[in-house]
Amino acid sequence: MVDRLDREMPEAQIALEFQDDVQLLVSVILSAQSTDARVNMVSPALFARFPDAVAYAAAQPDELWTYIRTLGLFRAKAKSIVGAMRAIVAEHGGRVPRDRVALEALPGVGRKTAGVVLIHLGAGEAFPVDTHVGRVARRLGFTRERDPDRVEERLTRLLPRESWGRGHQLLVWHGRRVCTARNPGCERCVLADLCPRIAVESRRSLREPG
Ligand code: SF4
């Protein structure tokens, strides 16, 4: 299935725009409950004002608000970014750490954020589970779990380690483009002949009379 998705969407890549490790971490924190496109709209001005971890660490969270207030949860995100950058300056020489334990110890950085950062730093394999990955994995019958950590555990047992990062990216794109939450495009899906469509047909029959 992953190979098919890869052939279908070779262009599938992280949509966030960043130039270095600090910008990557900031973008991923900002992307929670926000679209990548919205993050990309605000990040150039934010990155210009705060060029590195030291600049964020010296700021108060409310100094970031004006740059990110169009995003959801902007107060909490500003607090997380400043807190994480202070720890990065104090404990990691101003560089984003490249191992999961150190990443998850940063304020505001959970398992999913750490996984996305690890993949895109080329620092390790991970299979972060966001809303798209979870939904597609359940419809494909890979898991029945709803808890992201348990979905991740299942996916990492099904796929070889070297496919985790790519698998994550492809399921995210497939979930955004085809296997969407409300109206999955099963008619044009490259996985249609393999997919049990768990909980999909019942939703459709409820929606489509006759
Ligand atoms: S066949 Fe339908 S439910 Fe299955 S992966 Fe494709 S779009 Fe999603």
What does this structure look like?
Helix 5 packs across helix 6. This protein has 210 residues and is mainly α. It contains twelve helices and no strands. 57% of the residues lie in helices and 0% in strands. The two termini are 32 Å apart. The chain has two domains: 21-121, Endonuclease III, domain 1, CATH 1.10.340.30; 128-207, Endonuclease Iii, domain 2. It has helices at 2-8, 21-30, 36-49, 53-57, 62-68, 74-92, 100-104, 111-121, 131-139, 148-158, 164-177, 201-207. Bound molecules: iron/sulfur cluster (SF4). Iron/sulfur cluster is lined by residues 136, 139-140, 178-179, 184-186, 189, 191-192, 195, 197, 200. Iron/sulfur cluster (SF4) is lined by residues 136, 139-140, 178-179, 184-186, 189, 191-192, 195, 197, 200.
Supply the number of structural domains.
2
Bound molecules: iron/sulfur cluster
Q: Kindly, what is the distance between the CA atoms of the first and last residues, rounded to a whole number of angstroms?
A: 32 Å
Major beta sheet, specifics?
Answer: none
Parts with pLDDT < 50 across at least 5 consecutive residues: none
CATH architecture of the largest domain: Orthogonal Bundle
User: What amount of the residues lies in strands?
Assistant: under 5%
Query: Over the alpha carbons, how many angstroms does the gyration radius reach?
Result: 19 Å
Question: Within the CATH hierarchy, at the fold level, what is the topology of the largest domain?
Answer: Endonuclease III, domain 1
Question: Which range best describes the helical content: under 10%, 10-25%, 25-40%, 40-55%, 55-70% or over 70%?
Answer: 55-70%
Oligomer: single chain
Number of strands: 0
DSSP helical segment count: 12
Derived structural class: mainly alpha
